[in-house]
Amino acid sequence: MGGGGGKAPPGSYLGPWGAFGGPKQRGIVQYTLAANRQKPTAGALRSAVFNGWRRFRSQVLYIAPPFVAGYLLLDWAEKRNKFLNSKAGQALLEDEGDD
Predict the structure, then answer these.
(1) Cβ(11)–Cβ(4) under 8 Å?
(2) Engineering a disulfide at 5: which of 21, 62, 76, 92 sits with its beta carbon 3.0 to 4.6 angstroms away?
(3) 3-state secondary structure the chain
(4) What is the Cα–Cα distance from 63 to 56, expressed in whole angstroms?
(5) Per-residue pLDDT tens over the stretch 31-86
(6) Going by C-beta distance under 8 Å and a sequence separation of 6 or more, which residues neighbour residue 4?
């Protein structure tokens, strides 16, 4: 059940980090690609555009309505404030106060 390497006495060198004195691994093949042959950004711009559009499209109905409602509310409030601070608005407020 163990690694087959037996128990090493304390203080003995087991080898480099991760090599616990067991038998050599056999039949494991590793393939690598030279760093100057890799293209880490290949297709990144195209993927960013299409992925960005997909994410925007999926979230716009959650984000846009509150912003539109907030814009319309602020627009109405600014117009109402401008009207109430005008001569016509003051006259309307005075007429309502007389009742």
Answers:
(1) no
(2) 21
(3) CCCCCCCCCCCCCCCCCCCCCCCCCCCCCCCCCCHHHCCCCCCHHHHHHHHHHHHHHHHHHHHHHHHHHHHHHHHHHHHHHHHHCCHHHHHHHHHHHCC
(4) 10
(5) 888 877 888 788 888 999 999 999 999 999 999 999 999 999 999 999 999 999 99
(6) 22, 23
Euclidean distance between CA atoms 39 and 33, whole angstroms: 11
Cβ-count burial of 21 within 10 angstroms (0-12 exposed, 13-18 middle, 19+ buried)? middle
Say which amino acid occupies 29.
V
Structural domain boundaries in the chain: 64-99
